[in-house]
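Suppose you are handed a protein chain with no further information: no name, no annotation, nothing but its sequence. What can you learn? This example shows the usual starting point.
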Amino acid sequence: MSAISSTLQVFDQREYRDAMGGFASGITIITTHGAEGPVGFTCQSFYSVSVDPPLISFSVARTSRSLASLREHGKVVVNFLSSEQQHLSGQFARSGTDKWAGVEWYPSESNGAPTLDGGTGWVAGEIEREIEAGDHLIFLVAVSGISTDPERTPLLFYRGKYHELEYQI
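A reasonable first move is to predict its three-dimensional structure. Written in C-alpha cells, the prediction is:
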C-alpha cells in the first residue's frame, strides 16, 4: 500500500464533487480538428503551467469522443468563455449533438485549430505530452499563440452554477 492511499479519508464521489465545486473556475472550450471537421469540448480543468517556456495544461476524460482527434491532430486552442457564452458551455458539454451548430469560428493564425468568436481570450499550442491520471488524461501543451479581450467579462463556475464577476469602481 502506498503512503498516499493509506492516509486517504473515505468519502463518496458526490462528496468529492461537492468539495471540488468550492473552487471557482473559468470555463474553457478546447478545440481541435477531427476527420470530419472541428471538434471541441467544455473544460474546467485548465491552467497555466510555466512562463518559461510557455506551457499550459488541461484534462480530458478517457471516455471523451474528442480524445482521438486531440491525439491525431495535436494542435489545440483553449478558448476562454465570456459571460455572454454560457450557452456554448452547455452546448459543448453534450455528447451526440452537433456542438458546432450556429457557432462562429475561425482558424487560429498560430496553429490552424478552431478559435471561437466572443470569448475573453484564447491560447493556442501543440500537445507535447499526455499523462495518465485516474479516469482522465492530462495534456501538456507548448503555447504558440495567445489573444485576450479585456473588454469582456469571464464566465465562472462555482458550486454547480454559472456566475459573473461584478466590478466595483
